[in-house]
Write a structure and sequence with these properties.
Layout: H1 2-6, H2 21-44, H3 50-78, H4 95-104, H5 107-127, H6 133-136, H7 144-166, H8 176-197, H9 212-218, H10 225-258
Helix pairs in contact: 2-7, 3-4, 3-7, 4-5, 5-7, 5-8
Length: 259
């Protein structure tokens, strides 16, 4: 049973497949728990001190990195070369670094990190659960790779929603540059790693069975145009997120003043 869960020397059972009912049921259960915890804990912590709000992020940072480190150690025991494909250079993996930054840093870096997690945490959670075709086509649903991946992605989604609901997000315009710098830094590191290790971090090389395949096919897999379009989509997403946030918060302020 243990060997079958971890997949040492390969899994005996076949993957149920991307968008199978097993896949959708499993990730939906995780997402429901993610949303419920974020709403309940976020609402309860909305009017407490900043330090008490931050304790939840500290726990999220320790949990997400703890699960990821355990995954890396176990996989490297089975295959010492597997570290090459486990560097924290996917869009979702950035949260392994930015959630701890949001929890443990101070000042503008903390503000920008909180905003970055709020912006990308929920996107990564959905792409890494419902959109993870590369995982659910390769491994059985209830297997170590998919269970840990589901947990870490939904922890990121929880942190994103918690930051918004508890009122920790600032979304200050002066910090947008830091948000862009974090994203561009990871994109550059992912591109270098892809060239060096012949891999596909941040899906800058191809879609690999994810929704990025739509964009890959639209540009005919062009080796320059495709990664540029992926980065452009990130920028469009950030701009759209900020626009919606300002629109909603401005409307909320007006309603409060009217009342």
């Amino acid at each position: 049973m243990i060997q079958e869960f971890f997949g040492f020397d390969g899994f005996a059972r076949s993957p149920e497949g991307f968008m199978s009912w097993q896949h959708l049921t499993f990730v939906s259960a995780l997402v429901v728990v993610m949303i419920l915890l974020a709403v309940v804990i976020g609402r309860r912590r909305r009017f407490v001190s900043a330090d008490k709000k931050n304790c939840v992020l500290v726990a999220a940072a320790l949990l997400i990195d703890g699960f990821e480190i355990a995954k890396i150690v176990i996989n490297c025991v089975d295959d010492p070369s597997s570290w090459r494909v486990m560097l924290p250079l996917f869009l979702c993996s950035i949260q392994l670094i930015t959630i701890p930054m949001a929890a443990f840093t101070k000042g503008r870096l903390k503000e920008a990190s909180l905003d970055f997690v709020a912006i990308f945490g929920i996107l990564g959670a959905l792409l890494g659960t419902y959109g993870a075709g590369q995982n659910y086509n390769a491994y059985p649903v209830l297997s170590f790779p998919n269970v840990v991946s589901g947990i870490t992605h939904t922890i990121a989604g929880f942190a994103s929603l918690y930051i918004l609901i508890s009122g920790m997000a600032s979304m200050k315009k002066r910090n947008i540059g830091i948000t862009f710098a974090i994203l561009f830094g990871f994109c550059a590191a992912a591109y270098i790693a892809n060239v060096t290790l012949d891999y596909n971090y941040m899906f800058l090389v191809r879609g690999d069975g994810t929704p990025y395949d739509i964009l890959y096919n639209l540009v005919g897999g062009h080796p320059v145009l495709y990664p540029l379009c992926v980065v452009a989509l990130f920028l469009v997403y950030i701009a759209t997120y900020y626009g919606i946030y300002y629109l909603c918060t401005k409307k909320k302020v007006k309603e409060t003043v009217t009342v």
